[in-house]
Every structure is written in structure tokens, then in C-alpha cells.
Amino acid sequence: MRINDTQIDDTFAEAFPMKATRLVITAHSSTWARHAANSLTGFATSVIDCGCEAGIERDLSGDETPDGRPGIAVLIFAISSKELAKQIARRVGQCVLTCPTTAVYGGIDPANTRAPLSDNAPLGAGLRFFGDGYQISKVLDGTRYWRVPVMDGEFVCEEFTATVKAVGGGNLLFLARDIDSALNAAESAVAAMHRLPNVITPFPGGVVRSGSKIGSKYAGATASTNDAFCPTLVGLSKKSELTPDIACVLEIVIDGLTDADVGAAMTAGIAAATKIGRAGGVLRISAGNYGGKLGPYHFKLHELSKDIDGSRA
Amino acid sequence: MNAITLRVKNAPGFRVDGSKLLPATLAEISATELPRITLQGAGETCALGDLFDIAQEPSDAPALTIEGDAPWLDRIGANMTEGTLAVHGAAGDYAGMKMSGGELNIRGDAGAFAACEMQGGRLSIHGNAGEFAASALPGDMEGMTGGTLAIHGSAGARLADRMRRGTVLVAGDAGDFAASRLVAGSVCIGGKVGAHLGYGMRRGTVLLANAPSRIPPTFTEGGRGFDVFWLLFTRMLAREIAPFSQFAGKILPRRYAGDLAVDGRGELLIANS
After folding, report:
1. Residues of chain A with pLDDT > 90: what percent?
2. Domain annotation for chain A: domains and CATH numbers
3. In a domain, B228, yes or no
4. Which chain A residues are Cβ-neighbours of B186 within 8 angstroms?
5. Rounded to the nearest 10 degrees, what angle do helices A179-194 and A259-276 cross at?
6. Are B249 and A68 within 8 A, CB to CB?
7. Residue B168 is assigned to a structural domain of this protein
8. Low-confidence stretches of chain B (pLDDT beneath 70)
9. What's the complex ipTM?
10. Residue A313: which pLDDT band, with cuts at 50, 70 and 90?
11. Do A64 and A72 contact (CB within 8 A), yes or no?
12. What residues contact A281, with CB distance under 8 A and at least 6 apart?
């Protein structure tokens, strides 16, 4: 398949079940909400060594937040409920509790979520102990909040955040003529994806250049460079999938609350990159998988691309 | 399923236990059976048909309406779990006792112990409530533990005694010992309060629309910095009865902490101060 002369490989992205939650962070101003969110989602690019994958979903206006202040929604994904709870406690404790004027609430609505509900993860249920006995709880409209005395007043947080069974590891590979073309495609795709709800792109700027494969020639390394897509290894690696005209490959990894959300984000990314097309240096779009044997979610690029506008010549 | 209307035709001359009159229970009973339901009175029983004219009509949801004053009818809505129960007139004692769901609407006065040990749902009293509203039954350790009690008029003494959770709203005045021995929960009073406000209160929130004649001596200035809680609280109150629906989230009330004679983690908030 070709769209605007960019080749769409007949392949699929392979994704995995994860556990996820949304946190709503509010603050006296959107600036301080963003400070907390940036801190909370820092060093959260990959579950391989960060414990979770996290990112900012979108800014929230005052009429979208529980306390009427400006806020921000973040999504956190982990490989198990236990690890997710651990990461939430650590990150909220170190990055939100500490941040001036912030409050934090669970952002999954159990009554309306399309993703299957999982456990409740503690928020205030654990953080309240910072109050050293001065903390007080309040149940308002059936939701329990904790009020922990801190030096700027009170840190208010909901007792629990609902978690859901989510999808992690959706991906797109942009194979381009040069670095500028690859960055342009990736940045456009990330921007298009961020306009959609329920998804994050956890890597720096939403883009990763060190795509990996499972295993290594070195004992003890569980993952190593994806030599099939490294332009310096064309003709050297037997697995290389590149042609000499490809000088740069960038990847976007997508985590979403449902497979439909991940699929929609991938479609938006493909549409943004093919809009640039071959004329803009985007030569091919591909995806990473493990032969389809490891992950239950297969996102086939041709199916995702069938309704995208553009020349099919 | 039927919606049922009971119109008072004879006051029995003695107190009657109305706890059998639950919307979900009566909704499944046939028109021929309804008048034969026996209610326990003081030392004797009486048939529903002797006390009320009964009307039924099909309905999707369980609903019961009692029309006329029935101050002799105690325990209306006691242990209610679902449906709507409306009383167009006065109700007796223990209205909404231990109810855990549904809506009980009394468009008149209620007697003593309204909403006592209530666990959930909503009880609205458009007139006045007697003593011990939202409180514990004598000898019990916990009063109201959930739901909302909204009193449009005034409440008697010992309002919310030993209350642990939930929301109590009194648009009018409250008698002596309001929120005494409060364990937690929210008690909001729009009018004047009697003596010994918050006596022995451990935790929880007492919100007064106006400053009382004196702050209890075992309460201390409780500081500032509770802006976010006040925003959350006023957003919830915005859906409730006046004057509480009109409190602005941006204007902090004066706060006192107490009762220092006990735990001292309760708060007394005075909105218009």
C-alpha cells in the first residue's frame, strides 16, 4: 500500500496488556499543575527499567476538574497492578505532594470507562500518613478525600484511584530519507496523537530512536538494539529491513486505555506522516512486532490506513 | 410494580409503627392484600385499610405517597433501601431510621430521632425536625453513618449526636448540643445554634452560616490554607438547599479547631464572618 507515495508495510504492531490509571492534578495555576505533571511523568519512558510508562494526556480547564481549578491529566501504565500501585505511591508522593498548591484525584470514572476496571490503587490511603496524625478525611458525594497538612496549607488527595486493564506497546516506525524528514514525520504524528484522548507517547518528545529487539548476544541483557532498522547496519546485519536510501528511522510507542484508542492514535500518526509523504522524505512506515506470538493485540497497518486521505497511486 | 398512595382517613388515637410501609415492599403487594396489612400499634394492631384510603397505579419504580398529617405514624421509611417515599404532612418519630438508600421526602414536620443511624440515601424534611435528628439510638455508639439529611426548617436539641459520616443540612436553627460528640461527617446550620455547640466533637466539620453568640471555649483558631477542601465542599453544597448552596468557593470561612477536650481534629467553619 502507498499513500502519497509513502509505502505502508504489510505488517502489524504487537501490543500487550498493561494496567493503567489516569490521575487528575490540579493547582493554583496551570503552570504549577504542569510542574507536578512533568515531574511525575519524568523517567517513565519504558517499563523495562523505569517501572512504568507515563505521560501527560491533556490540560484540563477548571470546569473539568473536581475542585474547579486548572489541572492536567496524566496516564500511568505498568505491567501489573502491584507495580502500578507502587509507582503511583512513589511518584505522587515525591512529585505531587511536594509541589506547591497541588491536589490529586483519580481520573477514571468507573461508571463510564470503556476499559475494563481492575483494582483500586491507593492515593491518599497511603500518602495520608505524611500528616503524622494531623491528617483528616472527608467524604463528599461518596468520595473520600484526605487532607494532609503541609506548609502551604493542605494537600488534598482522593483516597483511591481506579485502575483499568489497558494496552501498551502500540508503535509506528517512520523510515525517512534524512533526519529532518524523520523528525518532521514523528513530530507531526505525535502532535496528531496528542489531540486524541486516552493515549500517551511515553518517550522523550513522544519519539524513540533506540528501538529494541528481545535478547542480545550478551548474557544478561534482555533487550538490545533493533539492528533490522539501523541505517548504519544496511548490508551488515542479516536482518536489515532497510534500503540504502533510508538514512533515519524513528519510532513512536503508544500506550492507550483500550485497543481502540491505540488503533485510533496509530491511524492519526500514519495520516500525519503520509500527509508529508515521499515528497517530504517519508519513504516507508512500518511497525515492530515479535512474530505475533507474544502480544495479544495486533494492529495491522493496512487496516488502520484504509480510510486515510491521500493519493493511492 | 405499583405506585401507592395512602390518604389518611382516621387517626388511630395511639402511636403506630409504620416501618412496614416501604415503597419496594408495598409495590409487589396486590390491591386486595394491601388493606389487610397489619401495623403494630401501642398495645394493639390495626389494618392499613382502617387508617388510610389506598390508591394504586402502575409504575416503573417503587413509589409510596402518604397524604395527610400522620404525626402518630413512627418509623416511616425505617430501613428503607430503595424507591421514593413522600409524606405530604407531618411524620412521627424515627422517620428514616437506619435507611440506607432511596429518597424520603417529608413535606411537614418530623418527630424525634429522624434519620437516626441513617446509612445512605436522602431524607428531606420541609418543616422542622425534633430532637436527636441524625443521632444514635439510646445506648448505641454511632449516629448517622452516610447519606444526606436536609431539614428546611429547624432542628431540636442533640442534632447529629455521635454522627460519624454523611451530611446534615439545617436551613433554620439548631437546638442545644448540636453536633455533640460528633465523630466525623458534615453538619451545616443556617440559623442560630443553642448552647454547647460541638461539645465533645472529635473530628468532622460543623459549618455555620452565621457566627454564634460565642465560640465554645475548647475550640481554638484553626488557621488558614484549607482552600482546596473549601472548593470541594462548596461545589457539593451548591446542589443543596439554601443558604448553603450560595456559599462562594473563593471566600474562605473563619475556621476554629476542636473540641480540644477530646481529639480536637474537628473544625468549626463560620461562613459569614
Report:
1. 93
2. 2-14+167-305 (3.30.70.520), 19-164 (3.30.70.520)
3. yes
4. 138
5. 140
6. yes
7. yes
8. none
9. 0.92
10. low
11. no
12. A176, A177, A178, A180, A181, A182, A184, A185
